[in-house]
Design a protein that fits this description.
With 105 residues, the protein is mainly beta. The chain has 1 helix and 7 strands; from the N terminus they run βββββαββ.
Length: 105
């Protein structure tokens, strides 16, 4: 596992999440990051079937859509203060932008 602050340029520049990013079917957001401890879930903002421009690095999005399963990594995210909910969970999903990421383990 990566030590804390492996991605951040300076303290408090982003929130690091060690987890999996994957594509979900059904209720939006369809691109979600789940922390490995399953405590936190974040969503990537979308326009139609694509992420909003700048919401996720294009290299990460290409890796995600070409993968057969979730992509594990450390994701440096910035919250947008907007939340979604899905009918099958009481947990709120915060929309975020992925600023940086590292997927090699």
């Amino acid at each position: 596992m990566f030590p804390l602050s492996v991605l951040a340029d300076e303290p408090n520049s982003c929130h690091e999440v060690f987890g999996n990013i994957s594509i979900w079917n059904g209720h939006p957001p369809s691109i979600r990051i789940m922390s490995v401890d399953s405590v936190e879930m974040f969503g990537i903002p979308e326009e139609g079937e694509e992420p909003v421009k700048g919401a996720i690095p294009s290299e990460l999005y290409k890796l995600l859509i070409s993968s057969d399963s979730a992509v594990k990594g450390v994701f440096c995210i910035k919250g947008l203060g907007i939340y979604a909910s899905v009918p099958y969970s009481k947990r709120k999903i915060e929309f975020v932008n992925v600023v940086k990421y590292k997927t090699s383990f």
